[in-house]
User: What shape does this take?
Amino acid sequence: MSISLALSNALSGLGAVSRGTEVVSSNLANALTPGYGARELQLSSRTLGGNGGGVRVEGIARLVPAAILADHRIAESSLGSSSTLSNFQVTIENATGSANQSDSLTTILGNFQASLVSAAANPDSDAELRNVSESATSLSNKINYIAIELQKARTMADKSIEGDVGRLNSALSEVARLNRLVTIAQAKGQDASALIDARQATIDGIADIVPIKEVQRDNGMVSLFTKGGATLIDGLKPAKIEFSAAGAITPQMSNAGGQLSTLVVDGIALTQAQMNMFKGGSLAANFNIRDNLAPAYQDQLDTLAKDLYDRLADPDVDPTLSAGQAGLFTDRQAALDPASTLGFANRITVNNAVNPERGGELWRIRDGINAVQPGPPGNSTTILQLSDALSFQKVSSVPGTSGALKSLFTSASDLQSLVGINRVKSEASEAHDASYASTMKSSLLAHGVDSDKEMEMLLQLERSYAANAKVIQAVNDMLDSILRIS
Amino acid sequence: MKNLSSIGDLARLYHTRQSNVSTKNKINTLSYEATTGIKKDLAKHLGGNASIVNQIEHRLNLINTFQKNTTEAEGILSAMQLAMQSMQDSIADLGPTLISEANLSSDSQIDIRNSQAKEQLSSIIRALNTTVAGKSIFNGSRTDTLPLPSTDAFLSALSNEISGLNSLSDIKSAISNWLDSPIGAGGYTDDLYQGNLDPSHRIPASDLRTINIDTNAASPAIKEILKGLALYSVAASPQAAQDRTLQRGLLIAAGETLTFGNDQLTIERSRVGFKEEVLKKESAQNSTEYSALSISRNSMIAAEPFETALTLKEMEGNLNNLYALTARLSSLKLTDYLR
Assistant: This one.
C-alpha cells in the first residue's frame, strides 16, 4: 500500500539522518585530531522490488587522499634523513669551531704558532716557554676533542639505529594486528574507520625511518614496502628486523672489519648493497653517518694530526732527535707508526719531556726534546726552526682536499672550512625538505574536517529530520482519519 | 562527494603556527646580529670564503706577536747603543791624548794620567756587562751570565800573558794574540769572556725578517779597545815606570790602538743603528698590514647595521600582521552565527 510505503520511506529518511548526525558529531569531535580521516555518509536511493523510494545508507566513507598521503610519507622520510644528517654536521661544526671563534681549531693552532714566534724573542723566559707548552697542550686537546666527538656521533648513530629498528618492529606488529581487526570488522559489516585511522597513524609514525609505500590488499588489509623494494609487512606477516648496537665505538671499528653490524632481516644479515633497500630515511642516514661521513672526517683529522707530528719530529728541526723519534707531539708518549695513523687524532699528546707537571723541563722546548741539560738561554735557533716547520709549505696529504702546497695552518683552516660548508649544505637540504614536507602536510590537513561544512550539514540534517517527521505525522493523521470512519 | 570546496580546520592552524615560528627565528637571528655587529651564521654568509677569514685572523694574531717582538728588540738595541755611547765617551779622546802626552808630557804628568788607567778599564767592563731585564746583552746567547769578570781578574790574566816580556814589540804581540785567539786556543775568548759568539737575540720582526743581535764582548771592535786599554794598563804598571822609554812606547801603542778601536766601534754602532732602522720599518709595515687586514676582515663578517635594523623592523611588522590575522580568522566561525 502506498501509505505504508510512504511511512517506510520516511522512516528510512529518519534513519539516514540519524546516521548522518552521528557522522557529523564524530567529525566535529575529531576536528583537531591529526591523522583522522573525515567521514562522509554515503547514501543512495533504495530499490524495493522495482519500486523506488526511501534512502539507503551505503556506508561511511573515509575521505583521505591516498596520493597526497603517500607523498606526505615520502616527504617525511626525506626530512628524517636530511635532518639527521644536518644535526650530525652541526655537532661536528660545534666541535671544530668556526671562523671568528676563540676556541676554534684554527685559532688554537694560530695561538700555538704565535707562542713560538714570541718565545723566539725571549727563549730565556720561563713564562714564554710555559706559554708554548700550554698552547701545544691546548692544540692536542682540541684535536683529541674533535676526534672524540666524531666517535660519539658514530655511537649515537648506532644507538639511534637500534631505537629506530625497535620502533619499526613494534609498529609493524601493530599494523599486522590492525589488519586482522579491519578484516574481521568488514566481514561483519561493521564500520572499520576508527581502526583504519589507527592504522594510518601507526604507519605515519614510522614514515621518518624509511620511505614507505602502502599497497591495498584484499579484505581491507594493507602491505607495506620500502621505496627500495624491501617488504616490511605483507598482510598479516611482518618482517622481523634485528640490529645489535655495538656500544662505545672507536675509530678502528667498522662494518668492513666486522665490529659493526648492518640490519638482519628475517635472519639474513644484509650486505651493503642490500642495505640500499632501506635508503631514504633516518635509518639509512644514521648508517651513513656511522660508516661513511664520520670515518671520512676521522681520516682527514688523523692526517692533519700526523702532519703536525711529522713537521716537529724532524731531526732537521730539532737536532737532538734521531730519525723516527717523536718530537714535541707524540702518539701517547711513543713514536707514531705510519701504519697506525687511524685514530691518531684520538691519541696525539704533547711530549712529557717538555711538561714540568709530568717530570719534563720547559727548557727542552728551547734546547731540544732529548737535551740532557739547559743550553745557552738566549739561543732561539730550535724555536725558530719549530716555528718555520709549521709554516713550511708542503704538499697536503689530507684526503678530500687539493694536493697543493700548504702550511699546517692552511690545512687546518681548509678542514674547518669544509666542515662549515658541509653544515650549510646539509641545512639547506633540510630546509628544502622541510618546506616540501610542510606543503604536503598542509595539503593533507586541507582534506581534513572543515567545521563550517559540518555545521552546514547539521542545518540540512535538522531540516531533513523535521521534514521526514512531518511526513510521518501526515501519514499518521491520514491513517487516523481512515480508521475513525469505523 | 569530492572535497574540492572545503578546507580542513587543521590546515589553517598548522599554517599560522609555522609562520609564527619561522618569523620568530628570523627575529632572533637579526637581534643577535644587531647587538654584536657580526653575522650569526658565518659559514653560510662566507660560503667558501671562511678559509680566507681564518687566514686573516691568523695573520692578525701573528702581526701582534711580531709587534711585541719589535718593541722588545728596540729596547735591547737602544740599551746597546747607550752602553756603546758610554764606552765612546770614555775612550774617544783618550787615544790622541795618550799619544800627545807620551810625546810631550813630563814623567810626573804621565804618572797622573796613568793613575786613571784602571778606572778607564773598569768603566768599559761595566758597560760591557750591561743587562736588560736581568739578561746580559753583550754575552752571546749565554744571557744568564756576565761577559767579563772583575777588572782585577782581567788585569791578573793580562799580567800572566806578559810576564817576563820586556820589549815593546813582544808585549804588543802577546796582548794581540791573547785577545785575538780563536775559540779553543785558550785565550781571552775561552778563559776570560764568559759568553759565546752566537747572536744574543734572534727576534722575528715579520715573516721574512728575523733580526740577529750579535754584538758582544768578543766583537772585533771591542777587542781592539780592550787591546788598547791593556797596553795602557801595562804602561801604567809600576814595572813600566822603571823603563820610561818602554813606558812612552807603550802609551803611544795604546793611543794608536784606542784610536783605531774607537773608529771600529763607530762602525759597529752604525751596524746596530741600521738594525734599528730596519726594525722601525718592519714595525711600520706590520702596523699598516694590521689595519688593512682588520678592515678587510670586518667587512667580510660584519652585519651591516642599517640593513639589519631595517629587516628587523620588517619582521616585527610581519609578526604583528600575523597576530592580527590569527585573531581575526579565529572569530570567523559559522557556529557563532547560528546563535
Chain B has a mean pLDDT of 89. The beta strands of chain B are 131-132, 135-136, 201-204, 210-213.
